Amino acid sequence: MMKTVFKIVGATAVVAGAYLYSRNETPSEFVERAKSTYYDKKQKTADWKDAYDGFKDAMAHYKFQLPILESTVSEIQREVDDAMFKIQPRLEEINKYSEKMK
């Protein structure tokens, strides 16, 4: 059992050494790069979470405002329909005279 552990640790050390050698990197440089990558990913994850929370808040506000918006749009449409009903006879009269002029 212990031989297997030493073989695995030895193989891992050889692979890690080959990796570092191929990148011309010291172990301390590797650790610093790994730490900086970790902190960068951690910050990006926190930024994404903040953005997602902001999106959820905005969506909740939108859902809250949606019935008010629908009511306002319905009211505007009703007013436009009423105005069109009132001016429709005049438009028909204008169209009749414009047809005669052609």
How would you describe this protein?
The chain is mainly α. Helix content is 94%, strand content 0%. The longest helix is centred in the middle third of the chain and has 75 residues, at 27-101. The model has no long low-confidence stretch (mean pLDDT 89).
Supply the key terms.
rod-shaped, mainly alpha, 102 residues, single chain
Write the layout of secondary structure elements.
Blueprint: H1 2-22, H2 27-101
What is the structure about, briefly put?
This protein is mostly helical and 102 residues long.
Q: What's the β-strand tally?
A: 0
What structural category do the secondary elements indicate?
mainly alpha
| Poorly predicted runs of 5 or more residues | none
Return Rg in Å.
36 Å
Report helical residue fraction: over 70%
Spell the H/E element sequence. HH
Estimate what percentage of residues fall within beta strands: under 5%
DSSP helical segment count:
2
Shape: rod-shaped
Main sheet overview:
none
Q: For the residues shown, what is the average pLDDT?
A: 89
Termini separation comes to 104 Å
